Amino acid sequence: MEALDEIKAFLGCETPQSWIDRAKDPANLELLLTDHAHCEKKAASTAMTLMFRYVDRPELLNKMSRLAREELIHFEQVLAIMKKRGLRYGHLSSSGYASGLHQHVRKSEPARLIDILIVGAFIEARSCERFAALAPYLDEELAKFYRSLLRSEGRHYQDYLNLAQSYSSTNIAERISEFCAIERELVLAEDEEFRFHSGVPAHNSALAV
Cβ of 205: how many Cβ atoms within 10 Å? Predict the structure, then answer.
């Protein structure tokens, strides 16, 4: 798939096999789907926050409005799958992945907006890469669902990236490279908690929902 190849080239590394091994374990399915649902909800919230903060940017408003709607549909789809399987959706602490990226966002505008959009691109790209990496190990229903998300998540990554470049007066390639190194470090670092965007599972990483 050309789009997936592009995303893998954009990311600094592929998801480690140790994370895939943890994620495909049926014992962790409720935790995985719970965090996936939270991620979809947070993605919608991020898009809405951008719409409220940057009301003078029509292209951003249009892109984020569509993105928020799609993410909420995905959220509802995950909830439906969990309900069908008798799995419980509840509160779950976040991984340090998103906060690890956001702590490097610059404070002044327009640099702040550009960085937020670049971070959004990395989060969406990593989601897409992990959906594809997990799909071969899942049951037929879940594999079909995760593959169905690849197109929209891939478009979200491109939307974020294109918006970031459009609001910058210079090429953002260097800034992308800086965030790429940060994202790679987060993905490859040992992580005490297992989440959809967590790093390499530590030997005694927490699994409780």
Answer: 16
